Amino acid sequence: MRDTWLESHFSWQIRTFWWALLWAVIIGIVGAVFAIVLVGFAIWIIGFFLLGIWAIYRIARGWLRLRDRQPLPVR
Questions:
Q1: One digit per residue, pLDDT tens: the chain, 75 residues?
Q2: SS3 string of the chain?
Q3: Looking at beta carbons, which pairs linking 21-26 to residues 24 or more positions away fall under 8 Å?
Q4: Residues 6 or more apart from 12 whose CB is under 8 A from it?
Q5: N or C end: fewer C-beta atoms under 10 angstroms in the chain?
Q6: Distance, C-alpha 59 to centroid of its chain
């Protein structure tokens, strides 16, 4: 897939996975620390909800660009 428009899609998928994993760990740890005072449960709910919205956006954007056979922006 190197040097094709599909290379950007693989890179997009890999970055989406690793960023989502990083944020899930951060949300989990921060929520666990604050769970002692019950605020952590709200951090988990809000944090994972926002993470889910972000992941859905990334997946949808990737699928739409893939359907149109267009590369994704590389940052």
A1: 778 888 889 999 999 999 999 999 999 999 999 988 888 899 999 999 999 999 999 999 999 999 999 998 876
A2: CCCCCHHHHHHHHHHHHHHHHHHHHHHHHHHHHHHHHCHHHHHHHHHHHHHHHHHHHHHHHHHHHHHCCCCCCCC
A3: 23/47, 23/51, 23/54, 24/48, 24/51
A4: 58, 62, 72
A5: C
A6: 8
